[in-house]
Amino acid sequence: MADVLYTGPIPALQVGRGHNQTSALTGMRAGRDMTTIHHSHRPNPCCLCWCCCCSCSWNEEERRRQRRRKRISQETKMELILNYEVCTKPSAEEIRLWSQSFDKLMRNPAGRNVFREFLQTEYSEENMLFWLACEDLKQEINKNDIKEKACLIYEDYISILSPKEVSLDSRVREVINRKMQDPTSHTFEDAQLQIYTLMHRDSYPRFLSSNIYKSLVHGVSRTSSES
Q1: Of all helices (H) and strands (E), which one includes residue 50?
Q2: Which of 107, 115, 133 has its CA nearest to residue 192?
Q3: What CATH number does the domain containing 131 carry?
Q4: Of 26, 165, 173, 227, which is least packed with CB atoms within 10 Å of its CB?
């Protein structure tokens, strides 16, 4: 018996299923088309900006770079303080005056270098470095640079976490902490004076009786007698 082809109407269930599938596919295609149209009007996003506004993230990144460059520049300037000061060879008269007055010693670049060499032997060179950093800060006039240098000085010589922390009393530390909210070129003035006094009373007398100073005096005296 030959197969009979069914040519009657499609069952309602199949019609409904097919219709729903067709509608769903049509809806999906329409959604994709709308999405394509929507994206075609948006600017091309860049790798730095999730909101598709290239300028905002680029500017923020550039500001970070500028801050890093400025900080490195300030740190480089502070590192220069670690080097001995450039000066001429002291005369016999200058060396003699160093024994008469601590002020005369500290006002003379060669005197500061020799005294600093002595402080190294006593593991207290940070006192001279702090004093020099404060003197450098006083010469600064740019407000932003003052803030940067003040922060570096605080981190290097005031912070209790720093290996180069100088010895200051609690009163002076409280003053510094208040002034650091808006630092100026004179923020560390009280601390500088305290460290200056410490070097004067404690280290200076030992410096005058040290081999470093005696050798210098002897060398100059011998040179003078030979000439």
Answers
A1: none
A2: 133
A3: 1.10.167.10
A4: 227
Q: First-to-last CA distance in the chain?
A: 143
Query: Are 112 and 105 spatial neighbours (Cβ–Cβ below 8 Å)?
Result: yes
Structure tokens at 83: 């080097």
Tokens 């060179």 found at: 125
**Under a CB-based contact definition with an 8 Å cutoff, are residues 177 and 153 in contact?**
no
Residue 203, number of CB atoms within 10 A of its CB: 19
Q: Which residues form the domain of 178?
A: 72-226
Number of domains observed in the structure of the chain: 1
Contact 187, 176 (CB under 8 A): yes
**HSE-up of residue 103 (Cα within 13 Å, Cβ side):** 1
Q: Is residue 65 part of a domain?
A: no
The closest alpha carbon to 118, from 19, 22, 209, 27, belongs to 209
**Residue pLDDT, tens place only, 128-164:** 999 999 999 999 999 999 999 999 999 999 999 999 9
Q: For 7-124, where are the alpha helices, taking DSSP H only? A: 12-40, 54-81, 92-98, 102-107, 109-121
Q: Assess contact for 176 and 154: CB atoms under 8 A.
A: yes
Report the distance separating Cα 19 and Cα 13, nearest Å.
10
Residues 6+ apart with CB under 8 A from 69: none
Q: How many CA atoms lie within 13 A of 5 on its CB side?
A: 1
pLDDT (tens digit per residue) in 35-45:
444 444 444 44
